[in-house]
Amino acid sequence: MRYLLLAALAALSSLSHANTGVAFVHGTGKQTNATADYWTSTFVNNVRGGLPNSANYVVINCDFTKYMWDNAAAGCLAGQLTTFINNRGITRLIVITHSNGGNVMRWILSNPTWDSRYPNIISKTVRVNALAPSSAGTPLADAVIAGNVFEASLGWLLGYQNDAVRMQQTSWMASYNANWLYGTAGRPALPKPFRSVVGTDVDSAIWDPDSYCGGYAENVGLETTQWWLNSCSDGFLNCSSQSAAGTVWFQDIARMRDREPLSHNQSRRACFGLDTILRADMGS
Amino acid sequence: MKTLKPLVFSLLALAVSAAQAGSLLPAGAADQQPARLVAAPLPAGDFERQPVALAWPLDPQAELAAPAPHVAESREYWANVDAAELRTGYNLDTTAPGALVRLSPVGAASGKRGAMAIDPSQLRVMRDGRLLSQPASLRQRATAEQLRAAGMDVSDGTAVVQLEPALGKGRFQLQLPRAEGRYLVHVYEPTSDVVLRAQADRQRVLAGQAFEVSAELRQGVLGMRGARIEGQLVSPDGRTFPLEFRGGKARAQLPEEAGGGPGLWEVQLFAGAASAGGPVQRDARTAIEVARPTARLAGGYAFDAAAIGFRLPVQVAAAGRYELRGVLYATSPAGRLVPVAQAHSAAWLEPGQRSLSLPFGPGNLPMGYGAPFELRQLELKDQTRMGTLETRSVALREGKARMHTPGPDLAR
User: A127 CA to chain B: closest CA distance, Å?
Assistant: First the structure.
């Protein structure tokens, strides 16, 4: 009993001496102002408010239209995280990713020797809170790219420039998960916890005010795209893809206000108490 | 004292096995091994030059197993359709109610007007040439803007509609009265039991080697009689190589110069059959990693028992950054081999006889665990050309049998 008490006190002591910071890592796309264009300042401010020092945050702006290992993707992420860690003296880094941002962060965790900046980022990272990560890809990427096979007049895929969408095809992610990434079934564990928040459904009824959180127009499209997916999906990703790597932290309906589901666009917004849960997580 | 005993025995066991050298175990059937090496040019780009190594502990209770190659399953097909067909009514053959139909305008043919953006409210559905009541024949409609907002990166002017499930299955005609130019029609039947399944027999392959692809068009659990399957192997830069299917299998031969670029190779499959309900079509794809054999393991190793690390000689044919990664299995107090640590190590290597170390570190060995060790899931990778060069599911066994000591067994 005494040992347990001592261990708990030691953990508390190390936490109190730690300098915790949070990084927000966006999904597919090239961002220059992800606070406004991807997350919203309400979401970012509510979450970072849970830190002992709420100024210890960084919103990543990189080009995630590239393959995850590209210098413009993981290289850019590593650069911005390293600068944040060094400038703010961060000793405990909590990383919040959304969608394909989870793959880029998982690339860094799974390939520590790719870039000499990676080991320091890994050593400072205490966990990744992966919001709706596309860990096993999405059939929507399959549909878009397959269409391109037929559309491109010059040959296969030559007319399509978004490597990140190509990479998130289900068969491609299966290959990357088997050869380059960790944390999926049967593969070695990642060096740091990677826990996902899983969106299970989309509400887009015009009479339901919950459909408007995160933007009504976005949710209307998700109702259609959901047809490409399983019965459990957030409109862009199957629950199985969101749960494929690391551990499931929680499914939306288990923790959201009134058991509301989080559509793929709502899982990066201050919807149904998601921001409050993430805010509370900053202190542990 | 109880907790110290296993540590003492572990250290003794390590000391006995210090500075061992030996040969790698023979490659297994599932392992990849280059038979030849090529001096591939260095691709353009900025690459890390500093040596980097990192190891971390694994949960000894974790069950590690190589994942099976991806099984592609398709309930969809694509077709190119010209405006004249769409104006009169394009035949849509469906095998289940509620098919989703995506229409995308395709670039204009030379000297002709390009296809206009599609307004989904202009689409009509006919059966046997008779117009069905509108808009009840289509349940769901979405524009390109709505689909993009949802993350589906469709091309300009695309529209998606869903046939009203109450209309059932079979042949319909889709009509766009003001169609111009050419269109891509994508038919997806989420509830259909007609599925094209395809699978490669491995996750990765080296340039110049071959692999096998299996494919079957099924209705329910049975293969469809008279199904015809065609396919092609496609490189990341768009080169195609035809595949000939016999008995549901095709052998894909990679050219010697394959690999080296970003992206994966794809197997693209096109299947068709005649069923009682009409013609059936399905298209499917699956991906495979292809690497150029720029380096290989030379076959030996040295083991540093104190550091719990290995050094492996590597034959390098092309300058680049190479990585070794592997899982250390150690013997638990109960005498079981279990995974205890993962290690990675990479360095820039010039052509010639080189070596790479793989340090796991004694800090990653749980208390009470020790020799004999096994190095499993060993992989040699070319980071500059993004390829897996050599794999060994079990690379080596090292250390004499440990003395059994009582203690906590994390693997139990």
Answer: 15
Q: Report yes or no: A5 and A78 within 8 Å, Cβ to Cβ.
A: no
Residue B262 has a pLDDT of: 84
Residues of A whose CB is below 8 A from B269:
none
Q: How many domains are there within chain A? A: 1
DSSP-derived letter for residue A246 is S
A11 domain residue, yes or no: no
Alpha-carbon distance A125 to A112, whole Å? 13
Residue A113: other Cβ atoms inside 10 A: 25
Establish if B282 belongs to a structural domain. yes
Contact A227, B75 (CB under 8 A): no
Domain end point (choices B276, B291, B306): B291
Provide the CATH number for the domain around residue B303: 2.60.40.3870
Q: Is residue B412 part of a domain?
A: no
Query: What residues in A contact B286, CB-CB < 8 Å?
Result: 171
Residue A16: count other Cβ atoms within 10 Å of its Cβ.
8
Q: Which residues of chain A are within 8 Å of residue B190 when distances are taken between CB atoms? A: 227-228
A147 contacts B184? CB cut-off 8 A: yes
Nearest Cα neighbor of A190 from B321, B62, B376, B309 is B62
Query: Taking 60 as the threshold, does the pLDDT of residue B225 lie above it?
Result: yes
Tell me if B58 is assigned to some domain.
yes
Nearest residue on chain A to B379, judged by CA atoms?
A179
Using a 10 angstrom Cβ sphere, with 0-12 exposed, 13-18 middle and 19 or more buried, the burial of residue B335 is exposed
For residues B141-154, b (16+ Cβ closer than 10 Å) or e, as one string?
bbbbebbbbbbbbb
Supply the range of the domain harboring residue B345. 4-67+293-398
Of B188, B212, B238, the residue at which a domain comes to its end is B188
Strand B76-82 with B210-219, pairing: unpaired
Q: pLDDT for A191-209, tens place per residue?
A: 999 999 999 998 866 666 6
What residue type is assigned to position B184 of the chain?
A: L
Beta-carbon separation of B152 and A225 below 8 A: yes
> Hey, which residues 17-56 in chain B have their CB within 8 Å of chain A?
45-46, 48, 50, 52-54, 56
Q: Is the pLDDT of residue B9 over 70?
A: no
User: Is A176 domain-assigned?
Assistant: no
Helix residue spans in chain A (DSSP H): 2-17, 34, 41-48, 76-88, 101-110, 118-124, 139-151, 163-167, 170-179, 216-225, 239-242, 252-255, 274-281
A140 vs B65, B69, B151: nearest CB: B151
Low-confidence ranges of chain A (pLDDT < 70): 1-16, 147-161, 204-211, 216-219
| B411 domain-assigned | no
> Nearest CB to A151: which of B53, B184, B188?
B184
3-state secondary structure of A150: helix
Residue type for position A53: N
Q: How far is B64 from chain A (nearest CA, A)?
A: 4
Task: List, as ranges, residues 302-331 from B with C-beta within 8 Å of A.
Answer: 323, 327
What is the model's pTM?
A: 0.91
Torsion of CA B294, B381, B51, B328, to 10 degrees: -140
B140/A227 touch (CB, cutoff 8 Å), yes or no = yes
Give me the number of domains chain B comprises.
3
Q: Are residues B182 and B202 in the same domain?
A: no
